[in-house]
Amino acid sequence: AQSVTQLGSHVSVSEGALVLLRCNYSSSVPPYLFWYVQYPNQGLQLLLKYTSAATLVKGINGFEAEFKKSETSFHLTKPSAHMSDAAEYFCAVSESLGNEKLTFGTGTRLTIIP
Amino acid sequence: SAVISQKPSRDICQRGTSLTIQCQVDSQVTMMFWYRQQPGQSLTLIATANQGSEATYESGFVIDKFPISRPNLTFSTLTVSNMSPEDSSIYLCSVGGEEPQHFGDGTRLSIL
After folding, report:
1. Alpha-carbon distance A87 to A42, whole Å?
2. Residue B108: beta bridge partners?
3. Are B61 and B83 in contact (CB under 8 A)?
4. What is the model's pLDDT at position B30?
5. B51 vs A: CB within 8 A
6. What is the DSSP letter of A45?
7. Which of A31, B55, B84, B107 could bond to A27 as cystine, CB 3.0-4.6 Å?
């Protein structure tokens, strides 16, 4: 079985500050890991994915995440927050790139302070 | 990536009725998934829908409550049957395969 834990249901950062959203996973097989973003009244948009090709993954909108097997973590970061980054962020784990179910964390709501 | 259209985008329904949600994709896809997002919560997989076979349901979800059709490689429907207020959620379809799952905008359903 797979699971995801996202620490911090709400995170607030000042505009221009570092964004750090935490994700820890549990998986009995090599995991595929994903970060999705959900803006109000919209579906989920893929930010980035880890597929074992590289431990540091760069995504859209300046986000990146680092896979750390020893810590079973896949934290999401962005060097400088922008007002448009305010949204709900979900970390997810799967046994394949796109053919198996996604198991989601509980989400982190990111608020940007002007 | 595939463009996914979900209909309706939102609806308000009376308890005891049923609603069918449509998911249309602009290209042929093998895997389609249906998720539920209850208010303020994360997404939970309801079922996986492959063309030409019965949908595979996750624990806690049954076909009588959430019947799914997958008549071809570009279309699927999810019906929420005999609705109660607890069914008020966002229902999202996604498509998978060789790429990460890509989601539609969801159907926001409220039950009175």
Report:
1. 10
2. B10, B90
3. no
4. 87
5. no
6. E
7. A31
Q: Verify whether the Cβ–Cβ distance A101 to B106 is below 8 Å.
A: no
Angstrom distance (rounded) from CA A113 to CA B74: 42
Q: How far is B97 from chain A (nearest CA, A)?
A: 5
Place of tokens 């389609």: B32
CB-CB contact of A23 with A76 (8 Å): yes
Token digits of residue A10: 């709400």
DSSP letter for A15, please.
Answer: T
Q: How confident is the model at residue B35 (pLDDT cuts 50, 70, 90)?
A: very high
Distance (Å) of CA A73 to CA A7, A59, B58: 11, 17, 26
* pLDDT tens, position by position, B57-74: 999 999 999 999 999 999
The residue written with tokens 């820890």 in the block is: A24
Three-state DSSP class for B97? coil
- Are A99 and B97 inside 8 Å of each other by CB? yes
Task: Tell me how far apart the alpha carbons of residues B56 and B78 are, in angstroms, rounded to a whole number.
Answer: 13
Choose from A33, A41, A44 for mutation: most chain B CBs within 10 A: A44
**Whether A104 and B92 lie within 8 Å, measured CB to CB:** no
Residues 6+ apart with CB under 8 A from A100: A94, B96
Shortest CA distance to B87 belongs to which of B63, B106, B107, B111?
Answer: B111
